[in-house]
Amino acid sequence: MSAIAEQNAVAKTGTLSYLPVALFGSVMGLCGLAVAWRLAHQLYGAPEWTSQLIGAVAVLAFIALAIGYAIKALTGFHTVRAEFHHPIAGNLFGTALISVLLLPILIAPYDLMLARAMWAVGAVGMTLFAWLIVSRWLQARQLATHATPAWIVPLVGMLDVPLAVPALRWPEVHGVMMLGLAVGLFFAIPLFTMIMSRLLFEEPLPAAMEASLLILLAPFSVGYSAYVATTGQIDAFAQALYMLMLFVLAVLLGRLRHLRSCCPFRVSWWAVSFPLASAATAALRHAGAAQNIVSDAIAVLLLAFATVVIVGLLLRTLAGVARGELKTLTS
Predict the structure, then answer these.
(1) Whose CA is closest to 309, among 281, 269, 278?
(2) Which of the residue ranges 97-101, 131-135, 270-274, 305-309 would you say has the lowest mean pLDDT?
(3) From 2.40.128.120, 1.50.10.150, 1.10.10.10, 2.60.40.1930, which CATH number describes the 11-329 domain?
(4) Which one of 57, 81, 193, 310 is most buried, by most CB atoms within 10 A?
(5) What is the DSSP letter of 292?
(6) Which residues fall within 8 angstroms of residue 282, CB to CB, at 6 or more apart?
(7) Cα–Cα distance between 27 and 63 in angstroms, integer?
(8) Among residues 304, 192, 203, which one has the least CA distance to residue 252?
(9) How far is residue 51's CA from residue 277's CA, in Å, rounded to a whole number?
(10) Are the CB atoms for 46 and 37 separated by under 8 Å?
């Protein structure tokens, strides 16, 4: 291809047109892991710098992705519009908004006002996005094959709204916390049922989407943390969410154990990061309340597993970027 033809092709498709919005899931995973290590520091005296380092990487990753996706939008907005209207990929715009909801947890100790402003933008944006997606679903008949784990992100993602509020020391927004908790938990039931039905009675998910199955853990792991943050207590309902989380995690890990051998690495594998980090966080919160050796063992095991997986994903992604493979890894 000549230089002129290549420039025309880039102008038509846009710079970084291959960059998926779902890659913001990496920021979610890193934020979740930083929070988990912060809890490990409080409970077990783990090194505080571990959480701070992971948090710094999360902030840098968000800035890099925000700049990259802005370039994609400015040079080829039609690709962003097509991605937004896609029946599956469009739901993953929620990953960017959830990242904006999680980062304030890490920023609050250093700049409370910035953290509050960022959370407010994320809360409003996430609520509007959830409303938009439900409206879209109701406007036209949906195909059963489109009911994938990505559908959980816009509505169950509302459970991320309450998570940062305790760190923000902002009791006046308790009603917003309740809104996020109510919408997230209510819609988790039908969405989980529809996705399970699709997995049972339709064609199997493509190999590249297998990693997204772990998103099914979110209603229970994030639901647990959101419920505890909103109500301020760990009651029977919270414990039920925690036990469901462990059961669903055991089922999904059995399903995903062959992921590495069934398909080559893709950035879509980052879909496992936040569910694992949120599971570790929920387990650490539960261990702090239960105070027994079994809960401690589960929490430490999940934290170690999530750390190994997320660090592995980060190193593999950075290696791919350094070798110029990002376009291949997003295909």
Answers:
(1) 269
(2) 270-274
(3) 1.50.10.150
(4) 310
(5) S
(6) 220, 221, 222, 224, 225, 241, 242, 245
(7) 10
(8) 192
(9) 12
(10) yes
Quickly tell me which residue has 């995973």 as its tokens: 29
Token duo for residue 174: 């308790």
83 vs 10, more confident: 83
> Which residue bears the tokens 């969405």?
191
Residue type at 145 in one-letter notation: T
Q: What tokens were used for 34? A: 């930083």
Stretch 246-251: mean pLDDT = 94
Q: Could you tell me which residues come within 8 angstroms of residue 143 by beta carbon, excluding any fewer than 6 positions away? A: 87
Distance (Å) of CA 311 to CA 95, 216, 296, 304, 317: 19, 22, 22, 11, 10
Rg of the chain (C-alpha set): 19
